[in-house]
Known about the structure:
two-stranded parallel sheet, five-stranded mixed sheet, Chitinase A, domain 3, alpha/beta, 22% strand, Helix Hairpins
Amino acid sequence: xxxxxxxxxxxxxxxxxxxxxxxxxxxxxxxxxxxxxxxxxxxxxxxxxxxxxxxxxxxxxxxxxxxxxxxxxxxxxxxxxxxxxxxxxxxxxxxxxxxxxxxxxxxxxxxxxxxxxxxxxxxxxxxxxxxxxxxxxxxxxxxxxxxxxxxxxxxxxxxxxxxxxx
Length: 166
């Protein structure tokens, strides 16, 4: 009986260059700095003798498993990611990486950047392309109305501007 094949991560496989750089930096930090430090702490705790009642040893081993799990995830995820480093040929439509200015019926404006699921928490205004609003905005044009179902009811937005970083 073998192990089950690894599951694919949920969400899209697109990422901005900044997002990919952030994930690589996290991987590097975990592998080159955090893991050696924790390994050294576990070795020092193991040298103290009875491991069954040694909290530092138990915690250290648990932390090593967490680090190894995250490292495996990041390596696998980065291998499968598609870095989108150019704006689309049709910049009049909303695609991955776009900054979109939306206006509600009451005139309130909000600005969002459409990014991948691995980076929407990087900065305020970043939303995942897999979110309801992100999915509703994709492929839409300037001045087009977008209706999004929210827990509090349907909300309508008008696309005021679409910009891409060059």
